[in-house]
Amino acid sequence: MKKTLFVALLTALTLRVGAQTNIPKEAPQLEFALQLKVTLGETFSIDNTQHGRRTVIPITGGTFEGPLLKGTIVNGGADYQIANAQGRTELEAIYCIKTDDGIYIHVRNRGIIASGNDADGKPSFYFRCAPQFEAPADSKYGWLNNALFLCAPDFTPGFNGIVLNVWKVK
After folding, report:
1. Are 158 and 23 in contact, with CB atoms under 8 Å apart?
2. pTM, full prediction
């Protein structure tokens, strides 16, 4: 009886552990959503706050375009960053965009910038964000409300700002 109970418990434990460690066969796919070309104002910083160095980068305008939307970036937002001494910066950019057909969409883009060394001691740089969109639910842009997005910068020479490429997680 004890042996049967032990084998049953061992079998259940093995099945449970096996189920927890299965690696998914397929990763989520990404679909290009839009590119933002954001113009920036004069940056200012507040050194040595209780959280680190606070930097504010005003967002002064720009344009955006993707397969399903196009328009301008509204002046008046900002990118708020907090950096620590270890080379890690957390950012939160808050601004609005306006489509060519007059629809305003709120954007809140949170991300991480990290520089340092990788596991092999080589210099590394990481910059990724996850924008969230708030569009009128009853508009043709309502799909932005119901998806996750990832973005990465594209440092374009000669452009006075930042270019962000955004992908929808499918």
Report:
1. no
2. 0.82
